[in-house]
């Protein structure tokens, strides 16, 4: 009897395996939606649209973008978490989502509980930018000025708890300076006020401000990755002044929990093939972004580590969004 039950269990398992793999072979058979937590036109949206175009070519079905901006990425995540876990709804995430695990207690979802990691996409360093009206040209000069004028300087961000806000708080802590945070509703308004001199400095995604820096409208005094940027090689990293400083924004893809592993693996392999092409590397290099080629295991570990790292910054700064 026990042997019969064991054989039956093996048979059921084999049928399930064959069914799942057959499903993956047929996937996708219709349009796939990528829920994007950004408004159209920004770097995150452009990344999603580029990927959708390449996946459509590789897998033979349309991949369309559904923009759901707002609430630091929560609106998009809640919508995607409620979707049927069949591989036809995917969610783009960013550093905001790993930060939200500590920032926003009542989100309605948990990232690593309600989603499956599919693939990492790319990352970009931030640029530390100052208005041309500020009489500093280097990070040491900025720190010296801030210490000589405590509370006089301010920095803009795209809102409380945003990646730009957390980068500012990390800088304040590591440099031991007093600089006032000025939250805006979006990065473009903050950027405009920085150009006009209404605020003193800002951490901003490099793809968003690269042309402003090159055009002399803003002064970049540092970037925030471990190594210098390939598109701004003459600008030092913050770590050259504050050893250990690193703050980048990543973008990745997730699927609702319960999505068949075979489908996730198929998507992961297709995405990594896209990321590996010289065309993709050059596309993102010109924007100041770099591909993130990882296995699913590496991507999962990265997400957990990023959640823990940002939790420390958030706890130290006292930032919270209710």
Question: What does this 3D model show about the protein?
Answer:
The protein is α/β, with parallel strands linked by helices and 322 residues long. It folds into two domains: 165 residues, Bordetella uptake gene, domain 1 (D-Maltodextrin-Binding Protein, domain 2, 3-Layer(aba) Sandwich), CATH 3.40.190.150; 116 residues, Periplasmic binding protein-like II (D-Maltodextrin-Binding Protein, domain 2), CATH 3.40.190. Helices cover 47% and strands 19% of the residues. It has twelve helices and ten strands. Strands 1, 2, 3, 4, 5, 6, 7, 8, 9 and 10 form a ten-stranded mixed β-sheet that branches. Helix 1 runs parallel beside helix 10, helix 4 packs across helix 12 and helix 7 crosses helix 12. The mean pLDDT is 91.
Total helical segments: 12
Structural class: alpha/beta
Largest sheet: 10 strands, mixed
Helical amount: 40-55%
- N to C succession of SSEs: HEHEHEHHEHEHEHEHEEHHEH
Taking all Cα atoms into account, the compactness measure Rg is 22 Å
What is the 3D shape? elongated
CATH class of the largest domain: Alpha Beta
Number of strands: 10
CATH fold call of the largest domain: D-Maltodextrin-Binding Protein, domain 2
Mean pLDDT: 91
- Between the first and last Cα atoms, what is the distance in angstroms? 57 Å
Low-confidence stretches: none
* CATH-defined superfamily of the largest domain: Bordetella uptake gene, domain 1
The fraction of residues assigned to DSSP E strands is 15-25%
CATH architectural arrangement of the largest domain: 3-Layer(aba) Sandwich
Q: How many domains, in number, for the residues?
A: 2
